[in-house]
Amino acid sequence: MITSEYYFPSTQGQALIHVNQWTPQSVPVRGVVQIAHGVAEYGRRYEPFAQFLCRQGFVVTAHDHLGHGLSRIPGAPLVYFGEKDGWKHVVDDMHTLRLQLQKVWPQVPHFLFGHSMGSFLTRTYLIRYPGNVRGAILCGTAHPSVWTIAGGKLLTAREVRRLGPTGFSERANQLAFGTYNKPFAPNRTEYDWISDDKDNVDAYIADPLCGTPATIGLMRDLMDGLDFFTDQYAINKMDRRLSALFISGDLDPVGEMGKGVERAARSFEKAGLQDVTLKLYHGLRHEILNEKTRRFVYQDVLSWLEARL
Fold it and tell me: pTM surpassing 0.70?
């Protein structure tokens, strides 16, 4: 396989978006998979999964979202989408990359893979740009209630006024992430919830590009995104021909131990999508691609992709 890195201009206007790409060399290209990572991480973390798919004939990209990894906004902190329209810019950046990939490989199916916040961005993309991909894999997603989102929007708006968009709010951070570790007490670290694999948790903590506290500006943008893509009226705008795979650990607190994932899948079915698949992995937490049993998840994703080529 050929491993490459490149940049393209963000629609935000100031930053360059960094892309990792894995291209098959000894096998024909059968499809393209575009990965959208989660909050406070970056695309290179998906390299083992990308290499697995690449060996099976898929071109795989994993870019760093605006304000993450190597896609820094000049003069701004990490985990920050910008002062205005951050969520829109990040989704538009995904579309910019999608169009670039389409020009190179126009004859093969294209798929999106979104993990955690990346699944939220992917769900937004599917509403705003219907009909642009053959299918979407939504990993570690959630579907909070309207009341939870409304409360989050009020809090983040107030904290942005108090701290400015680049500030950090302990209260907002606790609202968003503070309860995730409780089901796994007594806790070894504050990130026990992401994985049952201690080595994975320790590698995440040791990585300087992971775990940076989210700015209150990004938290505000996230709440705006949640408000948009959980609205059934908006969900109904998706392409009904889309194939969707929901995968999550049944011990993932982001998806309410599976309940939020089930609500998300039902919302797709309610919108008229006929090909919606849901699989919850017993005993796995948030990062199912990095658990010790990840080879089973890899194979399930591959089988789903191959069935839709």
Answer: yes
Q: Give the DSSP H/E element, type plus range, for residue 264.
A: helix 259-270
Distance (Å, whole) CA 49 – CA 282: 20
Mean per-residue pLDDT for 77-95? Answer: 96
The per-residue DSSP string of 108-128 comes to: S-EEEEEETHHHHHHHHHHHH
Domains contained in the chain, CATH given: 2-144+231-306 (3.40.50.1820)
| DSSP state letters, 50-65 | HHHHHHTTEEEEEEPP
For residue 53, give every residue at least 6 positions away whose Cβ sits within 8 Å of its Cβ, in sequence order, or none: 22, 33, 60, 298, 301, 302, 305
Give the pLDDT score at 178.
81
- Which class for 74: exposed (0-12), middle (13-18), buried (19 or more C-beta within 10 A)? exposed
Sheet holding 135-139, edge to edge: 2-9, 16-23, 58-63, 31-36, 110-115, 135-139, 243-249, 275-281
Q: Are 226 and 144 in contact (CB under 8 A)?
A: yes
Residue type, 96: T
